[in-house]
Amino acid sequence: MQPPAFLDGLSVTDTIQKAMANDGITTPTQVQALSFAAIAAGQNVVLHSGTGTGKTLAYLLPVLQRLREQQGRAVVIAPGVELAMQTMRVANAYKDPDMKAAAAVATSNKKRQNKRIQQSTRLIVGTTDRIAELLSSGKLKGTRILVLDEIDPLLSAKGFDTIVSQLVRTAPDLHVLIASATLSDRSKSFIDRFMPEALIVRDAEAPKTQAISHHTVRVTGRLSKNMAIVRFLEQNAGQTIIFTSNTSQQSRLFHELTKHNIRTVTVSRQRNKQQRQAGIQTFRSGKARVLLTDDATGRGLDIPKVAFVLHHDVPRSLAAYVHRAGRTGRAGEQGRSVLFVDDAARSALRRITSELQAPITPFAAR
Q: Which of 83, 101, 290, 340 could be 264's S-S partner, Cβ–Cβ 3.0 to 4.6 Å?
């Protein structure tokens, strides 16, 4: 089997070629083409690219190559369980069969996870709290590569600063990579401090979501947002992810959708790991049309052919909006992001509109 031409700069294994064939990958995304060689050479790199542009493989393929060629291990930190487990699934598909890898996430049994993470474990993907515990117990010795997947929320996570400081102190030549759809001023300060000579890789979609059109539905008079969403779903076909801001919103909307015979699953922090995975699989298979989630749990969900992302209310920041909207329009598919806006949210909508630098128009069915 001949390696795809765009991978000539990497040492391509049979496993990688088979995984790419299974995923239907024949050409690189822009961010991959710009970053493979630099990461494989050990350069610190920041991948500043929109959602769905291939950031995970952009860092994973050269990281896996470096692990084949040198001693030590790589640690990937993600802000949420779903994103960490999604990255772990990709890593398992592309790594050599004999390369040991393990997940370290907050919702799994700590004793079982600790048993899986041994000195021979080369790749660890986890959430901040579990990575901090592993670091304090001496389980991360030999770390040579650190990947920060979505830096903005990680910077606010408890213990994150300690993790980075200790790893940098114990491994002065630590290879640091960042993959993020957004870069706040705080993130830029982090980059200036810990990786001042890093290569910044941007593509045409960072930080915007160019495969996505942005819309509003005005909610006025006596019509509730929940009923406005029900009417929207009755009039527009397609798989839909809906973001809510709190559990009471989520619960009320779930009951309203169920009452109108719209098959819905809920994936939130109130569900355990098994329940969340089952809900995602039910939605992914098409047995449920709607997936209800929140910002913490929905971050990093990668489900193809999602027609709509609906926002029960306007999110608190542009970064939150970009991550929500990025659950549609994946891998070049067209998607639509729709904000349900009442009078109380008009000022928040103006802020998002001015910062997004892309038109947000009243929704009109196609």
A: 290
